[in-house]
Automatic annotation (TrEMBL):
Belongs to the short-chain dehydrogenases/reductases (SDR) family. It holds the Pfam family adh_short_C2. Keywords: Oxidoreductase. Coiled coil: none annotated. InterPro entries: NAD(P)-bd_dom_sf, SDR_DHRS6-like, SDR_fam. This is NAD(P)-dependent dehydrogenase, short-chain alcohol dehydrogenase family. It comes from the Bacteria. The keyword Oxidoreductase applies. GO terms for molecular function: oxidoreductase activity. It comes from Pseudomonas jessenii.
């Protein structure tokens, strides 16, 4: 490996599975000091074992409830105290609830906003002073749902939250220019993660995401490592003159009718 993140202290949320797990493994292999968190200690520990089996190390804190400001502050401040600095924040974690717009409950809508938008806002705000000191970077994980509607997938709350994440990314990039903080986003399409796997097991070819997947390069869900590679570029010094952008990693689904 080229060690594109050598000695950078990177905060990474949601390391317990899927894209977060693959990002943790990739970033550690590229020399980063990854300070990962997850609400599930068991899955976080599984990720730590995988990173160690790769021949690398990771600083894991779990459980961390990203809906609790004090919990997030303890995680971020603790990372800075242990490692002396924070160079990047990578907001991967999310926990949406899906239902048709006409019937989705207020409780599920609020839950989705709290666990897809509020947790990004909170982590960015609490990490911001450290990133100002290091002239660091933020990478937020958006979604294709923040750019396009989907006829077959009932995702109004998810779309609202992720659309807001993309807008927040642009505004933080604008405010970050004065203090040297770069802020960008990556928007995955339908990825081969546990929730998507479960959907295909239940519905097969009739899965609500199938019409989106059909438009991709391979006709299959993407692999989580593809998102991690895009995030690696935006976290590394290779992108030091890049801020305020969104990179769709969706196999072309957002561009091809």
């Amino acid at each position: 490996m080229s060690k594109r993140l050598q000695d950078k202290v990177v905060l990474l949320t949601g390391i317990g599975s899927g894209m977060g797990r693959e990002t943790a493994r990739l970033f550690a292999s590229e020399g980063a000091i990854v300070v990962g968190c997850d609400i599930n200690p068991q899955t976080a520990a599984e990720t730590a074992k995988l990173v160690e089996s790769d021949g690398h190390s990771i600083d894991v804190v779990a459980p961390v409830d990203l809906s609790d400001r004090d919990d997030v502050a303890r995680w971020i401040d603790g990372a800075a105290a242990r490692h002396g600095r924070i160079d990047a924040l990578y907001n991967n974690a999310s926990l949406p609830r899906f239902a048709p717009f006409a019937v989705q409950s207020d409780a599920d809508y609020v839950f989705t906003i709290q666990n897809e938008l509020d947790l990004v806002w909170r982590a960015c705000q609490l990490a911001w002073p450290y990133l100002v000191k290091s002239k660091g970077a933020i990478v937020n994980i958006g979604s294709g749902a923040g750019m396009q509607g989907a006829r077959a997938l009932p995702q109004a709350a998810h779309a609202a939250a992720k659309g807001a994440v993309l807008a927040l990314t642009r505004q933080l990039a604008a405010e970050g220019i004065a203090v040297g903080v770069r802020v960008n986003s990556v928007s995955p399409g339908v990825m081969n993660t546990p929730p998507v796997q479960a959907m295909y097991r239940e519905f097969g070819d009739k899965a609500p995401v199938a019409p989106i997947v059909e438009r991709t390069l391979t006709g299959k869900p993407g692999e989580p490592i593809a998102v991690a590679w895009a995030g690696l570029y935006l976290t590394s010094d290779e992108s030091k003159w890049v801020t305020g952008i969104n990179i769709p990693v969706d196999g072309g689904a957002s561009s091809i009718m």
